[in-house]
Amino acid sequence: MAQGFPDGNFRIINADTGLCLVALFGGMSGGIGQERDRLTGELVDVPYQHTKDQVLGVAKPKGDKGELWFLDNNKNSWGYELWHLVNLNKDIRSWYNLYAWDRNFGSGACELELVGRGTPNQNQWEARPRAGTGLFDFLPVPQGEGKKLVGLAGNGDGTYTAVLDDEGAPHQLWRFEVA
Predict the structure, then answer these.
(1) What residue ranges do the domains of the chain occupy?
(2) Which tens digit of pLDDT belongs to each residue from 64-116?
(3) I need a labelling partner for 146 at 20 to 30 A (CA). Which of 39, 49, 117, 137 fits?
């Protein structure tokens, strides 16, 4: 167990709600571009489509590949372990890593997201056992003053969003289910 996470592939399941963190299809975008016809030289419309980046979601475990994560503890070019949480659901361009960018500059919750592997300044993650529970807190490391933990925030309609929030906020205990 590196950084408190299981070896191999695992699900990250919230102990209060039973919901897990999952990578979801981000959709498609498209449009019309113009190219010159090689024979006539005239401009012609050419439709195109691109796959959008995957997005982080929260769902009941169903056995989908997007529910599975692993901890990348390979070393970077300076010899330090990466400790990135990587989703197993790779698309044609990239793996996606769990990312927390504290847009609130330290106060309140910020939504978690996925970013492509190799994006600069990615979070390192650690899971810490909560005494006597068999459950875990998990958080980006290192942190400055005021510990923030991964949790779920209710959206008011029975759905949840994965967030990084101040210690003590609701739904911050997690369990790991090895696949």
Answers:
(1) 10-24+52-178
(2) 999 999 999 887 777 777 889 999 998 877 899 999 876 555 667 888 999 98
(3) 117
